[in-house]
Fold:
Amino acid sequence: MLKYTLQRIVLMFFTLFIITLMCFVLVRMLPPVELPIEDPHAVVIAQRREAMGYNKPYLVQFGIFLKDVFTRFDWGISDKLYFGQPVADIFLEKLPATCIVNFYSIILSIPIGIMLGIFAALKKNTWIDHAISTLTMIVISVPSFVYAFLIQYFLSFKLGWFPFLMKAGTDYFSPEMFVSMLPAVLSLSFGVIAGFTRTTRAELTEVLTSEFMLLARTKGLTRGQATVRHALKNCMVVVVPAIFGEFIGIMGGSLIIEKIFSVPGVGSLYINSINGRDYAMFMLLTVFYTVIGLLASIIVDISYGFIDPRIRMGSKK
Amino acid sequence: MKNSKRIFSVLIAFIMVLSVVLLASCNGKQGTETTSSGTTETTAGTKDTTDAETTEAVTTSIEVTPFPAGTYTYKDAVGTLATNWNPHTYQTNDDAYPAGFLRVGLYDFIFNDELHPVEGKDPYAGYKIIPEMAASFPVDVTEQVKASNPEYNIPAEATSGYAYTIDLNPNAVWENGEKINADTYVYSMKRLLDPELLNYRAQDYIIGSLQIANGAEYYYQGTTAYMPIGVTTSEYLAAGGKVEDLYIDVVNFWGVDDSYVDANGNVSPQYVSVTDETVYGESVDDAFSGADLYDVYFGPGAAYEAYSPDYVYYAVVYPAGVSFDVVGIKKTGEYQIMLVFAKSLAGFNLLYNLSSNWIVNQTLYEANLSKVGDTDAWASTYNTSVETTLSYGPYKLVSYQKDKSMRFEKNDKWYGYTDGQHVYVDPTDGKTYEFYQTTAIDCQVVSETGTRKLMFLKGELMTYGLQSDDVAEYRNSEYCYVSPSETIFFFIFNGYEEQLAKREANEGFDTTKYDLQTMALKSFRKAIAVTYDKEALCQALFPDCSPGFGIIGDMYIYDPDTGAKYRDTDVAKQALCEFYSVDVSKFDSLDDAVDSITGYDPVTAKKYFNEAFTEALEKGYITDTDKDGKSDQTLRIEYCCSSEVNERMQQRIDLLNEKVNEVAAGTPFEGKIEYYPSAPYGTDWSTKIRQGLSDVVLGGWSGSALDPFGLTDLYVNPERSYDGAWFEAGKVNVTMTLPIDGKDTEITMNLKAWSDALNGTASKDSKGDTYNFGEGQVDIQVRLAILAKIEATVLQTYDYIPCIQDGSLFLLTQQAYYVIEEYNPILGRGGIAYLKYNYNDEDWAAYVASQADGKLSY
Structure:
């Protein structure tokens, strides 16, 4: 297991290097942002690009990039979106808001989702199950920004329970901030709740019809005991890795929800950096999200082995 | 397995702890949101003092009415928040947002009123320029400087306009109390033009209308700079320019990248000499050489010569070793600077150009400057956060969170609150008030317009820009304001007879049923010109716009000194009357005649439709085989669409059809005119119109609000005008009698030459005499007469049917109102300086809460 884990980590770094190199070269191969015709400032922009080394060979530029990252943890200066400012500082400033909002959303969603899933599975083929399943499908089908607008209209505008936007400031754990985050948290939660409900219901339904459940009941366990001690444990083989995945995904942010509720997070940074061809910002985000994706993949894979002893990672047997 | 489980458990625990630590540490980063409670307290503490001082200072001369006590917060929303408001490096309009609160120019504009009168102008009908960071108006010292400082190269014949001394306002200080003196201005200019820093805004002071003497030499020293020639190559060469100095920007024109190499593998430079015959890109499809591009595209008479101002550059080699000592800014006293310009600048333009400012705080600027990695570039974080910002304007930044919000509060160190100059007389009550009742400005990012509307209706925003869906509901609200813009939109009609004939000759076109050529007849187009009621059209299709009747809009000012508008002149009014066939003699005055124009005259339209029918029959464009007096063919007019037809576009086309058929009823074209949508042409739409391949589109032009004369080129230059393929302005002779050197002179020139002469290019008339009617060359009335004549001539082609004057509508909160309702092209409605409040914040909250559902009604 340890050997397998180490192998995966080495492979992760190798993959990360390849992806980083490819992205760096491909992005730099894009034609430069057109200089505004008739704008006298175009002369300055052209000179600045030259000074920034944009006209050097790609591999030389990549070497400079790696050297700066490893020797000074310098990811570069934003040349477009946040002109002249270090991209790492900007990213770190914006990351907490995204993490907090998504964290609250998951904390709220997972127990509700799992409980609804369990309830639906236990009441399989009853009106309760049908109602939960139908609602789940509807919620999954409707994009989260629709809930966002509905929440904003009814809870903020009509009822006045919440502010329209997330509060300004970095007092993320203050009661005012928590209340101001709730519309965004609720908007994000519907989809996650539905996802966990569906997964849990599907897994538990299957497990509940297994032969070992029949055995458990015949040896005298009550339905509740059998479900908690045997069925739930087995269905968690699928649910728990999904929880890990969600937790790691909290740093990804949501472009639309962050825009609607003015969450000062990283949700729109990636897209903006691509549209604005802000190379330094793009590379930092590419590396960050690649690391997150690769880590999530490793943790989810490895977690299977711990949750279900029958699964042997890397075993040749 | 047990060990592995333990390791995994520890790993998970470690990740979770790490996550919490990361979150906590990020949360603790005060740089993210930088509200300084200390600053707030200071502001609150000093406010009373400021008010008291203000009252005391002002009451010595005039009685100032104090505002009711309380806080007045201006709650604003933007789509994108400023990220860098450094005056040396900011690039976008979003980044310019804080400038109006934090900075003040040497001179500024205010409305004229009883305290700031302008001769011949009613209060609030114009504006006045006042010294702000300057203590007085500039003093021209050109003669002295020319004699004493030859390094500035002031032309020998110049007697004024090149050098000025400016006394600085000694009361101006940074928000921390640090003084702003001549050293500040000199240091800031030195940093702005620093050749190593490559500051984006340096260009504003070395090219264009304000050029600091030797600024370009200092900034570009040791380099070769490429400057756009700004005119066509013919004009450049005619003015004595040399071909060998010209270069083509092949990156922007030819799309050149690293794959374009010569036979030796050298990558093409961005600027290639027009005499360079080296071929780049033989391995790709579109190889080129500079010499070829020049011959084929940009040389005199070549296909794209009209675009040469954009793509052809001249090279300037700047020697190294230029000292800042020779740059045209000097300290001539503790509070006095001398500015020397490379080209003359005087009057309104001088003050206008000095209404922005370049100063930075030296200590803070130096502390935030650093090199970018191992490159030669520099980066500055000056003016990117609260800590890196110092104000010298009416407000100071007290809180900033990237992409979220910024808050400004009154800067109690601003001289304007105590100097007694920043006051106005409210035209509604006749009392005198200070500028800036607003005590704080809260600006938030609100991306969604739907959210903005809800927030506005809850009293959480001061303004809401109406969307098309809102206009019907709020257009007549007493809180609804119109902000007109310069752009005039007009219907461009296809008059390209040859192309229309070709299209009719195409296989599949049934000439027994349909017709195209009639639309090229002037009589038909004259009928169309008076078919549509512009006001009704606006209300139905463009409710946030106003009717447009000429090709030059209502907002253009021809005399910046007085704010006089072109559209208000008699010659401009006369041009409209001629176009709309209005008989001025039937009205009491020219103003009444112009006011009668609606663009809708069904009687005249019917007359012209009948004329068009006769003419079209004679020319064989249409037939009337059954002799019923009606065209056998339906005239089909393709409406040029850039994208798929949506509901609004269909509504526009339907309305055009409905109205034209209403007017054509009872004429030979009754039910015989049909607009239909084209296929989506994307960005090719303008080419389709210019080539006569599509027939009508709603297009528009706009230009500098202070230069209506510059617009003429858009209509007479065949490379820019929409009708250049069938309207040759270079062959349309126009004769005018103008007072030249004190006597009336009859001058005949083609329309293009008139336009060139009007815009400063010497042009020859039919007798071979040369005339230049550019700015400062002749009396303004002469220029206006020429402009009106060109407008009338272009209008009478009937290629352009003016339709709407662009604008926008917005709602202003019930919490506040503008002192002046009338929109001024330069000052707007005065902004926050002239905003007055009906409620302070506390009363406003109570008022909103008292409304049904807490929703305000507008």
Summary: Chain A has two domains: 2-87, 91-307. Chain A touches chain B through 65 residues (CB under 8 Å). DSSP finds twelve helices and no strands in chain A.
